[in-house]
From TrEMBL:
Domain of life where this protein originates: Bacteria
Subcellular location, record wording: Cell inner membrane; Cell membrane
SUPFAM superfamilies for this protein: MetI-like
PANTHER family: AMINO-ACID ABC TRANSPORTER PERMEASE PROTEIN YHDX-RELATED, MEMBRANE COMPONENT OF AMINO ACID ABC TRANSPORTER
The protein, known as: Amino acid ABC transporter permease
InterPro entries: AA_ABC_transptr_permease_3TM, ArtM/GltK/GlnP/TcyL/YhdX-like, MetI-like, MetI-like_sf
Transmembrane segment boundaries: 27-45, 57-77, 89-117, 138-156, 187-208, 220-239, 259-282, 340-358, 364-389
ABC transmembrane type-1 domain location: 93-386
Entry keyword Mitochondrion: no
Membrane topology: Multi-pass membrane protein
Length: 398
């Protein structure tokens, strides 16, 4: 005789039912949420396009091929008023990338120096670092940009009364003017020599590190690399007949002509971003170094390592595991804070494209969407690179 339990049969049926499968339910709910979000976004875009059509406002990206008709004070690529709005987008993008990359580079160096100085045993050095940190990180960034631009750079003399910093360098209210290298046909040999020097330096660095792991002997990596980077291009310069000459800026009329001109808007924005962000980076560095066990420092000093090598070879590599995640956030903040450039007229993406171009074309949705996509891409790219480096220095456990 076979006796069936009704409760057991129902329970078994539930277990075999597809809806009660946790994996299936998770995928189903995620798909429904994604569909609802997609429908919500579609409804907003469709409603906006309908309203624009009813008002007779054109939509689409056709405006990018129209002539811009306005000038830009700083351009890393060829540009004048006859170029299209699409060209203004790339000009603003490159200007934003320029100040972001340079700001990250300067803020990192200054932040590490101030952060290490904050832990100095010298009372005067540590107090100076503390004052710097508490001052710059507690003043709004916009006010610091105004300070550097209006109080410092706008107080410089006129071009006719420029401050001479050498035979080919002049500083005035219009900016800093320096000599520009002009390359002749044979100058490509210098570039090839520089690439060769970089390649040899990388190979030598890999070899020196492997040698140190095997034998414990250190090789002078820095000095050898610098010698190669200076010596090979110099030899190529003289061997190819000195195919580079300097174009010196010359005062003509009310301003200098020729050479390279660094506009005051760029200098003010760069100074403000780097000094402001460096104050946060300094605290991150200080916290990271303090998180390393003091026994590591004592062990290194007991082996006869000087304080400089102890910091560089023992403390900093371990502190980087703590420093890098918050450091990435500061890099992202610096890139996004560069949008404050329009307050002083620096031609970044927001000022040139989301400002002037938007006012002339009225293509608000397209322009704002492109601008947001640029900042999102820059942030994701920065995060990707920093995460790769973070995984490289992370502690590997077995």
């Amino acid at each position: 005789m076979i006796i069936f339990s009704t409760g057991s049969v129902v329970l078994a049926a539930k277990k075999t039912s597809l809806f009660y499968n946790p994996t299936f339910r998770a995928l189903l709910f995620q798909a429904l949420a994604a569909a609802a979000l997609a429908y919500f976004i579609y409804s907003i875009i469709n409603n906006a396009l309908t309203n624009l059509d009813q008002r007779g406002i054109a939509t689409g990206f056709g405006f990018l091929s129209q002539e811009a008709g306005f000038g830009i004070g700083l351009s890393l690529i060829d540009y004048d008023e006859t170029y299209s709005y699409g060209r203004t987008f790339f000009v603003g993008l490159l200007n934003t990338a320029l100040v972001s990359v340079m700001g990250i580079f300067l803020a990192t160096i200054l932040g590490f120096v101030i952060g290490i100085a904050r832990l100095s045993s010298n009372w005067l050095v540590s107090r100076f670092a503390a004052i710097y940190i508490e001052t710059f990180r507690n003043i709004p960034l916009l006010l610091q940009i105004f300070f550097w631009y209006f109080a410092v750079l706008q107080a410089l003399p006129t071009p006719r009364n420029s401050i001479s910093l050498g035979e080919s360098m002049y500083l005035n209210v219009r900016g800093l003017y320096i000599a520009k290298p002009v390359f002749e046909p044979n100058a490509h040999w210098i570039g090839l020599a520089l690439i060769t020097a970089v390649f040899i330096s990388i190979c030598y660095t890999i070899y020196a590190k492997r040698k140190q792991k095997v034998s414990g002997q250190q090789s002078p990596i820095l000095w050898v690399s610098l010698s190669l980077l200076i010596l090979l291009p110099t030899l190529a310069y003289f061997a190819s007949g000195q195919p580079v000459h300097m174009e010196v800026p010359v005062l003509k009329g009310f301003n200098f002509r020729g050479g390279i001109g660094i506009i005051p808007e760029l200098a003010a924005l760069l100074l403000a971003l780097s000094t402001y962000t460096a104050s946060f980076i300094a605290e991150i560095v200080r916290a990271g170094i303090n998180a390393v066990s003091h026994g590591q420092t004592e062990a290194a000093l007991s082996l006869g390592l000087p304080q400089g090598k102890t910091l560089r070879l023992v403390v900093i590599p371990q502190a980087l595991r703590i420093i890098i995640p918050p450091l990435t956030s500061q890099y992202l903040n610096l890139t996004k804070n560069s949008s404050l450039a329009m307050a002083i007229g620096y031609p970044d993406l927001v000022s040139v494209f989301a400002g002037t171009t938007l006012n002339q074309t009225g293509q608000a949705i397209e322009i704002i969407a492109m601008t947001m996509a640029v900042y999102l891409t820059l942030s994701l790219l920065t995060s990707l690179l920093m995460n790769i480096y973070n995984r490289k220095v992370a502690l590997v456990e077995r």
